[in-house]
Design a protein that fits this description.
This protein has about 375 residues and is mostly helical. It folds into 2 domains: about 120 residues, Orthogonal Bundle (Photosynthetic Reaction Center, subunit C, domain 2), CATH 1.10.468; about 150 residues, Photosynthetic Reaction Center, subunit C, domain 2 (Orthogonal Bundle). The chain has a two-stranded antiparallel ribbon with strand order 1-2. Helix 8 crosses helix 9. The longest helix is centred in the last third of the chain and has 21 residues. The chain is globular, with a radius of gyration of 31 Å. The termini are far apart.
């Protein structure tokens, strides 16, 4: 029998051993950074384990060695070069090798090109990729309010995959059900859109394809406009959940937690995010959705629409793609549309159009028509 005087030390030792064992299973302490004024609750929390995994997934691949701008333009050497024809042949070849590594490293050049006829547009992938190059140049040249000088390249979205991992299609209404709100695309969790929530499922159609206003907190006693509906609030919350997950941040990365609707006290990131929403909507309407006739049926969505982008397509869980490291810095040809090459100079004539005044009669130029009379 253990004496009472021995039970207390044994209990203390047992607790100590349990604490020691548990200490090896503890999650690492979260790292926090203050993003706003003290007392506003604007603090960003990050888990070191998750950050380490994201950093490993956001490594910028090494760039191809620089190529000289020498020799004739690519459009004078290769056929059917419509977008990048102003590059030199070495520059053009370098960019093609880079795009292959960014988009189709396993499939190779034949993912977009017919092996026996590289100039052919028979493969839909070539037509789409040409349009995507134009879209990339447009983003870098005209949407610096969002991408700044960091810019984007094909790698930003594709990450070595022919199809980016984060795309979306129009939501298809479920069959009529008795659940209240189901026909408003609610009460059906969809992990692919806005987490496992029962918020409206057509958030991207509403805000990133359509131009519906994003609801904000009203400042008047009576609701009006798009503030009059609880469903409008749920649409907005669904978009905010997507942006939070897509960028790997919480609400205070952009908003002042004491006044979410106040622009004056929000972080500068909120303005950048606003431009990002406008950019995503513009790209979906001008570049991606119009490609529907080009895609085969197996690449279209349930309603027959083309794949489109959202915030996660580029960011993929990080507040800045690749944590702000630019792949564009080594590829100036994607920073803006490439100017068309100058037309080739006419070949020199073998004989002068007019003979010198003191030349013999036999050297005089033959007139194109007999003299009158």
């Amino acid at each position: 029998m253990i004496k009472h005087s021995m039970r207390v030390p044994l209990r203390v030792a047992g607790v100590a051993l349990l604490a020691l064992a548990a200490s090896g299973c503890e999650m690492p302490a979260e790292q926090k950074a203050q993003t706003g004024y003290r007392g506003t609750g604007m603090i960003d929390y990050q888990n070191p384990r998750i950050v380490a995994a994201k950093q490993a997934a956001n490594v910028v691949p090494p760039a191809q060695p620089p190529a000289p701008a020498v020799g004739p333009p690519a459009s004078q050497v290769y056929q059917n070069v419509q977008v990048l024809g102003g590059l030199s042949v070495p520059q053009f070849t370098r960019l093609m090798l880079s795009i292959t590594a960014w988009v189709s490293p396993e499939q190779g050049c034949n993912y977009c090109h017919e092996g026996n006829n590289l100039a052919s547009d028979a493969l839909y992938t070539k037509v789409v990729s040409r349009r995507m190059i134009q879209m990339t140049q447009h983003i870098n040249a005209d949407w610096q309010a969002h991408v700044a000088q960091t810019g984007v390249t094909c790698w930003t979205c594709h990450r070595g995959k022919p199809v980016p991992s984060e795309i979306w299609f129009n939501h298809v209404d479920p069959p009529r059900a008795r659940l209240a709100g189901n026909n408003a695309r609610q009460n059906k969790a969809d992990e692919n859109a806005i987490g496992m929530t029962s918020l409206p499922q057509d958030v991207f159609q509403t805000f990133l394809l359509g131009d519906s206003n994003i609801r904000v907190t009203g400042t008047e006693s009576l609701p009006y406009g798009n503030r009059s509906s609880i469903k409008q609030a749920e649409w907005t919350f669904g978009l905010m959940v997507h942006m939070s997950e897509g960028l790997g941040v919480n609400c205070t990365y952009c908003h002042n937690s004491r006044a979410f609707n106040s622009w004056e006290t929000s972080n500068p990131a909120r303005v950048t995010a606003w431009h990002g929403i406008q950019m995503a909507r513009s790209l979906n309407n001008e570049y991606l959705d119009p490609l529907k006739p080009v895609y085969p049926a197996n690449r279209l969505g349930p309603s027959g629409d083309a794949p489109k982008l959202n915030c996660a397509t580029c960011h993929q869980g990080v507040y800045k793609p690749m944590y702000g490291v630019s792949t564009l810095a080594n590829y100036a040809e994607l920073a803006a549309p490439v100017p068309a090459p100058a037309p080739p100079a006419p070949p020199p004539s073998d004989a002068p159009t007019e003979a010198p005044a003191d030349a013999p009669a036999s050297a005089q130029a033959t007139p194109s028509s007999p003299p009158a009379g």
